[in-house]
Write a sequence for this structure.
């Protein structure tokens, strides 16, 4: 039996009034990556199959392999909401390889249609990692036909029962929802390939705008071992009733969530709040040009600090170039990732309006001055990044920062993404890895792109200044 | 160097062709015994092509405007060091024996572009993918360098302000300078931030202008003048395009290498130089230049500036023409403008800004934030 072993939530960093909204450089994609990065103890580079629940711009699923540091990722898309999540969990449970990790990214698009002028609210992403193990089963699903009153959106704390059991009028067999929401390549709902394709349904805003927060809250309670740990029911409002999905667990799920800290963050300007997923600023006709192919080729380095360690001279080459930048050899290059947490800031400046390159004019018009930092990722590697989520000037030399994936600039009708800096988390080192079965270590050793948490000291002559 | 010409620097009505023509005509006129353009065997044009008025093949425009229509001309582009490298190419052409007389010109027309277009072009010479698209133009890159310099050496912004105040004082004596009004340190420190810790008056302006140089082999030079200015030695160097990839954030390896080569070729000691023309696109850049050229220890340039030694009348004036800061910085013209200053100073014709008794000068031209640099030593 496969099990959900970890979950994480990422919430937007800005507030508009009482609701959480995207910061100007955030969107569904960056939140999805953040949620995946927060999965406690999960090495996302081991993920083989990705299940995307909810609408994402059609170009973005292809970007997840670089964002998660794996090149063997397939992405399957599902309709928004609990039913889509349910379908994703079932598909993940039916994963073909016992030892593989399936990753479910559930995106709540908020309840304002994309493109409207109202800020999206309550946007959240949940990431669930599913792999071989015991501890969690997914059991029956119920759906109400009553529309008498608006069902409560979260369960009563400590209760293992559906929040509105009186609304439940029957239990549908799993295939019902699968037929409704999962279209397989042959189009008739059978499970021959076990790989649904819902791109059409997921592409646009539908009439049903679910809110995933109750699901997230419930799963966190499973993770926290609160209440009755072996069953949690979730109820989400539908136009004509409620859908209930029940998760049962016999073991805790490791969870991280920024739910509390997010609510205390500063309020953004209205214009910042209104800049959301659906809009890419008009193409900038006079931007310095990085061709899309170059951008794509550099994504592993731009997004995860992918670098190469030369087995001949031990020097680190960053960004990836296929050849040691110190000794010129290419036959002993080993791919690594430099740490994206705890980088020490070596230089900092604040760019005032008018001193920015034209590519970020749109950002400056919304949020004004911004800081740019040079931070050290390795004894021989520095990276130049913007500061985000903090006022300009909030970070000084000697401070430590973490790097997060965010929008950086628009080009040719799409956003391009890169790393930005946020003040380093204060909790200290990340939590220990959750054992994921007997295949964990061999996979980790033979993998081509091991995560380098503790880079070795470099003997590169470039260190000398 | 047998002739040198210089346009006014500033926001000018003339277009790029007219500026080039003015500078070349002035250089021709400056040749004491007269100059026949047909003696020019080759030309080199330093220009970035700011605003895209002629993106490619602008070398042909120098051939046209200098009225040397069949003479080969190459455009040399190393950002702000374009003319420095054009001069280097000319020196090699003569040194190799391939040419007897060579024309060098530098040109930029910057002020007539709309502000958005200007901001686009101001950052095109930095690292595009890793610096510019992280939100940096050159003010930002030099702001980063300044932040480290001030913190590392416990230097107050006063030293940056002194560089600006000194160069404005010098510029006030230069009729070609864009800014001919003195400013005080206090005014610099009260100007708005552009890229912390750099303020508006720490930054060079956007400038139109051109300069032209006529070089001849040593044996030919006296056919043109009794008082040529000699190139005693030149040097150049390169470094990583992006600041993040450099060994140090407060020292330009390209400058250090260029200076070492120039002094080796000239067989002169640093102490022999009477005045310096250094690349002060931002005030911090002059401090770094003095240290990388070997005139101050790391962190020591601040005290040197504050001592007054770098002012006209001081022991070794720096940027007597006002520097990029006050004279202006038409990107591709700056390297030629610096050589022009060496020419007039060493011939004693610099007027109110004359460095008394100047016999040896050093010019220092930097591309971008230090990805390339040239150093040239001139003597009488």
């Amino acid at each position: 039996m496969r099990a959900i072993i970890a979950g994480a939530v990422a919430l937007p960093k800005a507030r508009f009034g009482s609701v959480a909204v995207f910061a100007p450089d955030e969107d569904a994609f960056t939140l999805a990556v953040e949620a995946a990065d927060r999965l406690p103890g999960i090495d996302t580079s081991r993920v083989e199959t990705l299940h995307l629940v909810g609408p994402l711009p059609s170009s973005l699923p292809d970007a997840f392999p670089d964002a998660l540091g794996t090149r063997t990722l397939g992405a399957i898309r599902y309709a928004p909401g609990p039913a889509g999540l349910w379908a994703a969990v079932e598909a993940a449970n039916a994963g073909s390889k016992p030892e593989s990790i399936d990753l479910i990214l559930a995106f709540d698009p908020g309840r304002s249609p994309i493109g409207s002028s109202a800020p999206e609210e309550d946007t959240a992403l949940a990431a669930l990692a599913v792999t071989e193990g015991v501890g969690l089963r997914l059991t029956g699903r119920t759906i109400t036909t009553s529309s008498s009153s608006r069902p409560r959106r979260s369960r009563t704390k400590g209760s293992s029962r559906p929040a509105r059991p009186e609304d439940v009028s029957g239990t549908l067999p799993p295939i019902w929802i699968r037929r409704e929401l999962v279209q397989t390549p042959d189009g008739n709902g059978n499970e021959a390939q076990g790989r649904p394709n819902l791109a059409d349904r997921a592409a646009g805003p539908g009439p049903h705008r679910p809110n995933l927060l109750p699901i997230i809250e419930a799963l966190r309670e499973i993770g926290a071992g609160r209440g009755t740990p072996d069953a949690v029911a979730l109820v989400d409002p539908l136009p004509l009733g409620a859908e209930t999905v029940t998760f049962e667990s016999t073991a805790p799920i490791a969870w991280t969530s920024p739910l509390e800290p997010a609510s205390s963050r500063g309020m953004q300007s209205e214009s910042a709040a209104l800049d959301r997923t659906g809009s890419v600023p008009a193409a900038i006709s006079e931007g310095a040009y990085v061709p899309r192919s170059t951008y794509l080729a550099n994504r592993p380095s731009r997004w995860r600090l992918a670098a190469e360690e030369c087995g001949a001279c031990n020097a680190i080459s960053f960004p990836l170039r296929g050849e040691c930048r110190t000794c010129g050899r290419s036959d002993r290059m080993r791919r690594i990732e430099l740490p994206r947490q705890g980088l020490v800031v070596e230089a900092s400046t604040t760019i005032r309006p008018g001193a920015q390159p034209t590519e970020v004019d749109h950002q400056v018009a919304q949020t004004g001055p911004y800081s740019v930092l040079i931070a050290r990722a390795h004894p021989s590697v520095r990276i130049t990044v913007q500061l985000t989520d903090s006022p300009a000037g909030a970070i000084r030399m000697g401070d430590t920062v973490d790097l997060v994936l965010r929008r950086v600039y628009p080009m040719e009708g799409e956003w391009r993404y890169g790393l930005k800096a946020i003040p380093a988390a204060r909790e200290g080192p990340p939590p220990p890895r959750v054992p994921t079965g007997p295949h964990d270590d061999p996979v980790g050793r033979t993998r081509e792109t091991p995560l380098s948490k503790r880079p070795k000291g470099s003997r590169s002559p470039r260190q000398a200044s | 160097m047998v002739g040198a010409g210089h346009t006014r620097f500033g926001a000018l009505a003339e277009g790029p062709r007219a500026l080039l023509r003015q500078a070349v005509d002035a250089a021709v006129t400056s040749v004491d015994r007269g100059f026949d353009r047909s003696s020019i065997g080759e030309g080199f044009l330093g220009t970035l092509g700011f605003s895209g008025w002629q993106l490619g093949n602008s070398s042909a425009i120098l051939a046209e405007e200098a009225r040397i229509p069949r003479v080969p001309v190459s455009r040399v582009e190393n950002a702000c060091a374009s003319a420095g490298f054009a001069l280097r190419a000319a020196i090699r052409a003569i040194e190799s024996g391939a040419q007897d007389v060579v024309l060098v010109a530098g040109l930029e027309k910057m002020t007539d572009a709309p502000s958005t277009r200007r901001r686009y072009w101001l950052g095109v010479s930095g690292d595009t993918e890793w610096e510019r698209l992280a939100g940096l133009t050159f003010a930002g890159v030099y702001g980063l360098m300044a932040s480290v310099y001030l913190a590392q050496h416990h230097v107050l912004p006063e030293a940056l302000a002194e560089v600006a105040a000194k160069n404005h004082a010098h510029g006030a004596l230069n009729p070609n300078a864009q800014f001919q009004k003195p400013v005080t340190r206090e005014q610099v420190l009260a100007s708005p931030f552009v890229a912390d810790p750099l303020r508006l008056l720490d930054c060079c302006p956007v400038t139109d202008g051109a300069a032209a140089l006529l070089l001849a082999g040593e044996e030919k030079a006296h056919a043109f003048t009794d008082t040529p200015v000699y190139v005693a030695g030149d040097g150049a160097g390169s470094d990583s395009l992006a600041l993040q990839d450099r060994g140090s954030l407060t020292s330009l390896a390209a400058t250090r290498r260029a200076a070492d080569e120039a002094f080796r070729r000239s067989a002169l000691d640093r102490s022999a130089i009477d005045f310096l023309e250094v690349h002060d696109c931002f005030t911090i850049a002059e401090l770094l230049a003095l240290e990388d050229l070997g005139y101050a220890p790391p962190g020591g340039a601040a005290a040197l500036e504050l001592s007054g030694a770098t002012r006209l009348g001081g022991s070794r004036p720096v940027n007597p023409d006002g520097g990029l800061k006050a004279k202006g910085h038409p990107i591709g013209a700056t390297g030629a403008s610096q050589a022009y200053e060496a020419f007039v100073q060493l011939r004693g014709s610099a007027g109110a800004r004359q460095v008394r008794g100047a016999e040896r000068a050093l010019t220092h031209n930097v591309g971008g934030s230090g990805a390339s640099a040239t150093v040239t030593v001139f003597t009488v």
Notes: The first strand of chain B starts at residue 3 and ends at 6. Residues 3-379 of chain B form a domain with the Peroxisomal Thiolase; Chain A, domain 1 fold (CATH 3.40.47.10).
